[in-house]
Automatic annotation (TrEMBL):
Residues 41-164 form the Phospholipid/glycerol acyltransferase domain. This is 1-acylglycerol-3-phosphate O-acyltransferase. The gene is plsC. GO terms for biological process: phosphatidic acid biosynthetic process. It holds the Pfam family Acyltransferase. Pathway: Lipid metabolism. Keywords: Acyltransferase, Transferase.
Length: 238
């Protein structure tokens, strides 16, 4: 499926699902003037719940091609939705297949948005929903530097939420090939009221000279710092 077809499918699904999300969760968006309205960009966000991509997509006006853990493509229903809506699988160890790399390059070539959660599933594995962001994986920084793409940081701040057991039992998760740490997750966060906050984009050009490894770390640190500032900034108060 081409990026154009994926974008149309994504928007059809979004238009269908959005009213239900809006009824289930009270969502407010701030800093929307910072949203890059056209051209290639990497959208980053914190990752506390399996609801996050749906919440973010609700407030973001453009097609988002999401990077998702490879094992999530084995989950019934989600697997099919992810494939037809442009989801891109990536291994939890950071390795990415040649096919997925080509998919990412097509997203950028078409001037679209690549969505990624730099925490991976680590925050949900920690299962402490009162804690701050965990350390970032730096793969998103490599995508930015190698493809010369700016990064748009965002955060989801829960105002009201509840917690429930994961609906898929551990033994079933294991049978589906999920990593042990994911099989052991006890609870999931269910949002009732949230804020989505968008920050100013981070210019990739400041990280092009010198060592790629050092630049990846610096860019990752800058983006994480910006996202923490969004969590603690003027829109953070309930």
């Amino acid at each position: 499926m081409t990026v154009e077809k994926e974008a149309k499918t994504y928007l059809r699904i979004k238009n269908f699902v959005a009213p239900f999300i809006g009824l289930a969760v009270n969502i407010s968006a701030y800093g929307t003037e910072n949203i890059v309205t056209n051209g290639k960009v990497i959208l980053t966000c914190n990752h506390r719940s399996d609801m996050d991509p749906f919440i973010l997509s609700y407030t973001f006006p453009r097609f988002i091609s999401w990077i998702a853990a490879e094992y999530t493509f084995r989950i019934p229903i989600f697997r099919d939705l992810a494939k037809i809506a442009g989801g891109i699988p990536m291994s939890i160890d950071g390795n990415i297949s040649l096919g997925s790399i080509k998919m990412i390059q097509q997203v950028f070539k078409k001037g679209e948005t690549l969505g990624i959660f730099p925490e991976g599933h680590d925050y949900m594995v920690k299962n402490d929903f009162k804690s701050g962001m965990v350390d970032f994986h730096s793969g998103f920084a490599a995508f930015s530097i190698r493809n010369k793409v700016d990064i748009l940081p965002s955060v989801i701040i829960p105002i009201e939420e509840s917690y429930s057991d994961i609906p898929i039992p551990p033994i079933v998760r294991s049978f589906m090939g999920m990593p042990k740490e994911v099989c052991d997750i006890k609870k999931r966060a269910i949002y009732k009221k949230v804020k989505v906050i968008y920050g100013e984009k981070v210019d990739h050009r400041e990280f092009l000279s010198g060592s790629l490894e050092e630049n990846m770390k610096q860019l990752s640190d800058v983006v994480r710092s910006r996202m923490i500032s969004l969590q603690e900034g003027q829109y953070a108060e309930a």
